[in-house]
Amino acid sequence: MNRRFFSKLALRNIKSNKQIYLPYIFASIATVSMFYMMIALMGNKFVQTRNASLPPMFALGAVVIGVFSFLFILYTNSFLIKRRKKEIGLYAILGMKKKHISKILTIESLVTSSLSITLGLIVGHLLGELAFLVLNYVLKFGVKMSFPLTLKAVMFTIGLFVLIFLVTLIYNVTQVRFSNPIQLIKGNQTGEREPKSSIFLFILSLLLIGSGYYLSVTIDNPMDAIIYFFLAVLLVIIGTYFLFISGSIFILKAMKKNKKLYYRPSPFISISGMLYRMKQNAVGLANITILATMVIVAVSTTLAIFLGIEGTLDNQFPYENQLTYYTDDHDLEEEIEEIKKETQTIGLEVTGTEMYNYYTLYPILQKDELAIEKIDYSKNDLFNVTLLVEEDYERMTNQSIDLDSNEVLVNEQKITYGYSTIRIGDATYQIRSKIEDPIKKDENLKKEEKLINSSMIIVVESKEILQSIIDYEVKTLEIEYDSPMEAKISWNTTGTPEQKENYTRKLEDVLSKKDGSYYESKELMRNNLYDMNGGFLFLGMFLGLLFVFGAALITYFKQVSEGYDDREKFQIMQKVGLDKNMIRKTTRLQIIWMFLLPLVVAVIHVAFAFPIIQKLLLVFRVTDTLLVLECFAGVIVGFSIIYGVIYQVTSKIYYSIVK
């Protein structure tokens, strides 16, 4: 047999099996193009120079897409080779040697992989230009960008997918090498035995998922949420697989024991059919559930981060500009006058100001004493106290409090303090009253700071008392460097947004020359946030699209595979009197089961993940809970509609096969 014969046979096989080969090739082209785009964006010069956070972000996306592509192509290939086993077995019975069959499979793999990689790179590059237009709109670049064809990205993409397709070829060849012709002919007809119920596996699944849920709902600190989030995700993913493998069997067997339900034509066929192949179905359902959860979480969180930019800016900057001093040699009144003069020279006016001195302690709260001891500052959940001076408090609140030297005001944030006195160092102070936070902030930000910033604010009578507390800390902890109180000046200005942005850039050049100070502005931060958070949104949408695509293809291959598995059974049933309406009714029950279960479990996963996701969003200073809920609700509804369309289309394909 010559090479030309094998090539013709391989091409004919692809053409005759186009119903399963075309979706496989389409899926491969899509994954190649997505991976190439992410790699190209990661190495794009404009992206690298625009914001330092974007290349690592796209690198993470490339890793996720690469891993997903590997698993996804192997998964879809397993459906494809299952449908080909009977055909391959016939070749063996007709006298073709296994090495010849392996050669045909190799040629088929070369054709499909070459086509997928070549078209994937072309489509990826064309879509890359479109992706840059979207990126430009989302990030508000406003400048011309290019998406050049980079040899490094092309070679990296080719290398990865050659490896992936090589693994699939090895898997396909081993299916031929280690099976006899009879096994191959019956391979797509050999269903799995009715699986045994495993109470241990079912309990383990509940424990794993429950542990992930527990981590999500009990963690309060955003820094801890970052650490434990991936552990919770891993527990829930493993638990989901075990739940579908074991829990679905329990449910089906319970339904089977219900004689009134089971011994009717439609439930009898659907329940027994699903139970018979439940191990295969369970893995597919678990995959769809996990992909659905990833879509909802990825798109919702990145959408909330992007839509919350203005709220984040308002929270972080109660005023448009703020200047922080880290030295003692400053007079706030003089400093604000200099700022007003500089603002006038630029052509704007200062319209509102706030200024105060402060110092932050990290003591240990022991009953009614703030004990100053050496502690581990690397801990995420430190107790900290912000100390303010009476004159600054009166200026900010327009209230006269007239404290004595032994009196303080207390604002409780992270803790509830139940004593009438408080001891700091060598002195004991009477608590005059508990106050509201004197520093102008959004209410949501106050809630956030209870989690990640000050545990308590204390107002003392004078700078001298505040300095005595600082001196005591320096002496007690044997601090060798100066530990001065800090100061902050905040102000607004007149002008249009364009004038304010120009103002902040000019003022930044002037104030950067001042030693021991740090200038921030809402306008400058707005550009940085749109760069970074827009990149997150782009990545979230990109991964969301990939996961939706994966769920659609898995659903399609599952329906096609099960359709062919069920066709002969339904044909036999039609011969013994089962009409087409009964077939439709029977398949509808199975389709509803397959459709609702992954979606319902995914929504439950997202509901329990919401608390830990909220903590993670606090790191991005997204504190608007209603906004986050709206994003999640909108994405869930949108995904449900898309998922419903997918099942409507694939169920018609399934019915067209079985009827």
Any key phrases for this structure?
11 strands, single chain, 11-stranded mixed β-sheet, 70% helix, alpha+beta, 659 residues
Task: Quickly give the structural class.
Answer: alpha+beta
Can you tell me the overall shape? elongated
Total helical segments:
21
Question: In whole angstroms, how far apart are the ends?
Answer: 40 Å
Helix content: 55-70%
Query: Beta-strand percentage?
Result: 5-15%
Largest sheet properties: 11 strands, mixed
Low-pLDDT stretches = 441-452
Strand order of the largest sheet: 3-4-7-8-6-9-5-2-10-1-11
Backbone CA Rg: 33 Å
Give the strand tally: 11
Mean pLDDT: 78
Structure description:
Strand 7 (421-424) and strand 8 form a beta hairpin. Helix content is 70%, strand content 10%. It has an eleven-stranded mixed β-sheet, sandwiched between helices. With 659 residues, it is α+β, with helices and mostly antiparallel strands. The two termini are 40 Å apart. The chain has helices spanning 3-16, 18-43, 45-50, 54-93, 98-139, 151-177, 181-185, 199-218, 222-257, 259-262, 265-276, 278-307, 309-316, 332-346, 390-397, 443-452, 463-477, 497-511, 522-575, 580-619, 625-658, and strands at residues 321-325, 350-361, 364-366, 369-371, 385-389, 407-412, 421-424, 427-434, 456-460, 486-493, 517-521. The protein is built from 21 helices and eleven strands. Helix 9 (222-257) packs antiparallel against helix 12 (278-307). The radius of gyration is 33 Å and the shape is elongated.
